[in-house]
């Protein structure tokens, strides 16, 4: 399995009031991880939207919103649990959703100042290349920047890599049938499968 990662801390784009930017100086952390999975595109996409799989990899539980099945555009999920020895909550909105190709979850409530996670799916010979791009900024000024760089960046990078390892193992084995019982070996229409999961 080939997996790549990089981290690029930088200042956010120059949008919003200049006074606000000068006062906060919030550092934008970006992480990128990718992997090739030898499985059909539809299977990889649907597994990536499965709440139960996210729960396994995240180690938190969905307390409100879309708490089971497959997420779609407009869905929200409130995740709650313990991380780094502290109680945490993180509420996400699926604010963009293009079946088989792309979806984004964005934090609408939680510990971060901002948090966005892009999921990209590109067909390749014999499988799918998954790209994850994650961006976040911290609260608490300089202390938050230090916490982000030395604690959260390594922690989140491990979670992203663990997520891809889990997805790869499930998608390339028969374990995927446990999460997508109505899907055929070659995949089926994503919209139909997502609609079915909502009932």
- Our count of helices gives 6
Oligomeric state of the chains present here: single chain
Strand order of the largest sheet: 1-2-8-7-6-5-4-3
- Residue ranges: pLDDT <50 for 5 or more in a row? 7-23
**What's the average pLDDT?**
86
CATH class assignment: Alpha Beta
- CATH architecture assignment: 2-Layer Sandwich
Largest sheet: 8 strands, antiparallel
Query: Termini distance?
Result: 36 Å
CATH fold node name: Alpha-D-Glucose-1,6-Bisphosphate, Chain A, domain 4
Q: Into how many domains do the coordinates divide?
A: 1
Strand content: 35-45%
Count the beta strands.
Answer: 8
Report on this model:
This protein has 199 residues and is α+β, with helices and mostly antiparallel strands. It has one domain (3-59, 114-197): Alpha-D-Glucose-1,6-Bisphosphate, Chain A, domain 4, CATH 3.30.530. It has six helices and eight strands; from the N terminus they run E-H-E-H-H-E-E-E-E-E-E-H-H-H. A hairpin with a 2-residue loop joins strand 7 and strand 8. Helix 2 (41-48) crosses helix 4 (141-171) and helix 3 (51-58) packs across helix 4. The relative contact order is 0.21.
Summarize the structure.
The chain is an alpha+beta fold. 33% of the residues lie in helices and 36% in strands. A hairpin with a 2-residue loop joins strand 4 and strand 5 (86-98).
């Amino acid at each position: 399995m080939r997996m790549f990662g990089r981290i690029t801390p930088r200042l956010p784009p120059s949008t919003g009031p200049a006074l606000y930017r000068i006062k906060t100086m919030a550092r934008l952390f970006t992480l990128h991880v990718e992997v090739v999975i030898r499985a059909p595109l539809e299977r990889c996409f649907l597994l990536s939207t499965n709440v139960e799989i996210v729960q396994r990899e995240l180690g938190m539980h969905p307390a409100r919103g879309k708490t089971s099945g497959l997420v779609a555009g407009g869905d929200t999920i409130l995740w709650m649990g313990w991380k780094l020895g502290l109680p945490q909550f993180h509420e996400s909105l699926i604010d963009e959703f293009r079946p088989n190709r792309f979806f984004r979850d964005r934090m609408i409530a939680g510990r971060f100042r901002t948090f966005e996670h892009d999921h990209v799916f590109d067909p390749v010979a014999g499988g799918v290349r998954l790209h994850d791009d994650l961006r976040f900024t911290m609260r608490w000024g300089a202390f938050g920047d230090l916490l982000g760089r030395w604690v959260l960046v390594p922690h989140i990078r491990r979670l992203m890599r663990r997520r891809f390892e889990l997805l790869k193992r499930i998608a390339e084995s028969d374990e995927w049938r446990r999460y997508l019982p109505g899907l055929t070996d070659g995949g089926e229409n994503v919209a139909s499968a997502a609609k079915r999961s909502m009932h």
